[in-house]
Design a protein that fits this description.
alpha/beta; binds guanosine-5'-monophosphate; 19% strand; elongated; Rossmann fold
Amino acid sequence: MKGNLIIVSSPSGGGKGTLIKEVLKVLPNIGYSISFTTREIRGREENGRDYFFVGKAQFEELIKKGEFLEFAEVHGNFYGTSMSFVKAEIDSGRDVVLEIDVQGADSVRKTFPEAVSIFILPPSFEVLRKRLTARATEKKADLNLRLINSFREVERFEEFEYIVINNEVTKAIIDLKTIILAERLKRIRQSGSIKAILDSFNASSVEKYIAGD
Ligand code: 5GP
């Protein structure tokens, strides 16, 4: 059985990075898709861990080669998801988390309609503004752009199957984990693993009891 594609989107500062990191620490059988980006490296980020940081020309080369499952311009930079990584993960039966924006989520659904999509909502605009300001990783103009874009992003919440309100982090982590685990328990996803159980409920095993053995 293939793994699930888990799309997680939120406005910048919505806290999806923290939630995903905590969930990945405790759940087995799940990988994280490291995106390619043309954005400058920021704060404590590391190339190959947080993103693959590439130049515009290299990004365009990757587009030409068809390496991206999706790519989009977000807050003035380009971001893209590796198709080969995602396919290898789900084909090996592992779930894979895509931390991407609302445009990317839309593109992924077109290629993989069965993808699970989750929108992380901050408890209010004011809380989002405070979190983004406290993070202090963006210059003022970039921070404002991210706040302006948050309106357009939150507007699209109805495109997502699940909503996690990130008010209290511990609760939001449990919510995110619960969604991923519940998706794995869907009947359709367990048809392979329950086959042996169902096979044991066959006519000959029941007949023994009818005969009183
Ligand atoms: P940041 O610059 O704060 O790391 O990310 C900015 C936005 O780009 C976030 O909404 C993030 O989820 C999104 N993003 C990160 N990687 C990708 C990607 O591969 N594709 C798309 N479409 N968006 C991405």
